[in-house]
Design brief:
The chain is an alpha+beta fold. The chain has 2 domains: 85 residues, no CATH class; 194 residues, Bira Bifunctional Protein, Domain 2 (BirA Bifunctional Protein, domain 2, 2-Layer Sandwich). Helix content is 38%, strand content 20%. A 7-stranded mixed β-sheet has the order 1-5-6-10-9-8-7, with helices on both faces. Strand 3 and strand 4 form a beta hairpin. Helix 1 runs parallel beside helix 4, helix 2 runs antiparallel to helix 4 and helix 5 packs across helix 10. The structure holds 3,4-dihydroxyphenylalanine. The site of 3,4-dihydroxyphenylalanine (DAH) has 11 residues, from strand 9 and strand 10.
Length: 336
């Protein structure tokens, strides 16, 4: 028995001498002190020894166990203190494993870019609720009861008089109700329409609304601002064109086209061979809107515009299906 104890003691001295890391240390602990370890194995043999050999063998075995425990602990302390870090089996100079990196959604990136351009022109950013009263979505914007957009098929109604806003023009009204001119603000946000989803339609999308009100705002201010915007958004070579149009809340109204960014105006499939792409609606604020919010139309003039963020992102990045923005396909999102 004593011989066996000596043998194990010797074996342990070798093992601990070679231990370079915490994991090896743990393996050694299990090998010697574990429930089925070498020390336990000898312990189990004690009862079968001759009576007079038992005390000495027992004492030796306990001494060995205590020594193993002490040396393991001492070794652990030196390893933890880093004293033998240079001998660790870890190469600290090896490059780490890069965790996957997230990024902003292309719509958020486009929104930030649009906001940034207008902020640099002195616009403040304002927001309004997505659940709205008919007054803000329609009446105050001079959209009469018989207008087709007031049909439940064209707007999500929650209950009579309460709906999901179908455009961000609502926020124009909310700002003007709360503040006196001068106003110079953009209003980004989500809007909702019960359209069948296809490559160019979504029941939810984003708009950025713009509003400027002061004593002498002119249509030429609108043209100047939107010319700067289109050039900064789509490149210096991009031309803007103002086409007469109609919106109940602006008078006169215009739709703004940019020269096709695919063919530079020569005509291609993307611009239906017209050379132009429609990007927003705009105009000078209809005096009726001022009346609805209690401004004097005689005293104040205003300009307004509204654009769809998905449409702008699609044109800018050459995306041909709006659904890609909302499917959360990482292969698509990774490209931005
Ligand atoms: N609200 C309009 C829409 O959703 C866009 C728009 C057009 C906003 C002309 C305006 C504007 O402020 O002046 O189609």
């Amino acid at each position: 028995m004593l011989e066996k104890i000596n043998e194990i003691a010797q074996l342990f001295t070798n093992d601990i001498g070679n231990a370079r890391g915490m994991q090896t240390l743990e393996e050694i602990r299990v090998k010697y002190l574990g429930r089925k370890g070498l020390v336990a194995e000898l312990m189990s043999k004690l009862p079968s020894l001759e009576k007079e050999k038992k005390p000495a063998a027992g004492r030796e075995l306990n001494t060995l166990k205590a020594r193993i425990q002490k040396e393991l602990e001492a070794r652990q302390r030196t390893l933890l203190s880093g004293a033998s870090l240079t001998r660790e089996e870890i190469d600290v100079t090896m490059p780490g494993i890069k965790p996957p990196e997230g990024r902003l959604h292309p719509i958020t990136q486009t929104l930030n870019e649009i906001n940034g351009i207008f902020v640099s022109l002195g616009f403040k950013i304002a927001e309004g609720p997505e659940i709205e009263k008919e007054f803000y979505n329609f009446e105050a914007l001079n959209i009469p009861l018989e207008h087709p957009s007031r049909d439940a098929f064209d707007t999500f109604y929650i209950k009579k008089d309460t709906l999901l806003r179908s455009h961000t023009s609502t926020v124009q009204v909310r700002i003007m109700e709360k503040t006196k001119p001068p106003i110079q603000a953009i209003m980004p946000g989500r809007v909702y329409r019960p359209d069948a989803v296809d490559a160019t339609h979504s029941f939810m999308f984003h708009q950025v609304e713009g509003l400027m009100v002061d004593r002498d705002i002119k249509f030429s201010d609108l043209k100047g601002i939107l010319n700067i915007f289109t050039k900064q958004m789509f490149g210096e070579k991009t031309e803007a064109r103002f086409r007469p149009s109609f919106f109940p809340f602006t008078e006169p109204s215009a739709e703004v086209d940019i020269s096709c960014i695919m063919c530079r105006g020569k005509g291609c499939r993307v611009c239906s061979h017209t050379g132009w792409l429609e990007i927003l609606g705009a105009g000078t604020v209809n005096p009726r809107v001022f009346e609805a919010v209690g401004y004097s139309p005689r005293k104040y003039k205003g300009l307004a515009f509204g654009m769809g963020v998905e449409r702008i992102a699609m044109l800018k990045y050459g995306i041909d299906d709006i659904r890609l923005f909302f499917e959360n396909d990482i292969r698509f999102l990774k490209q931005f």
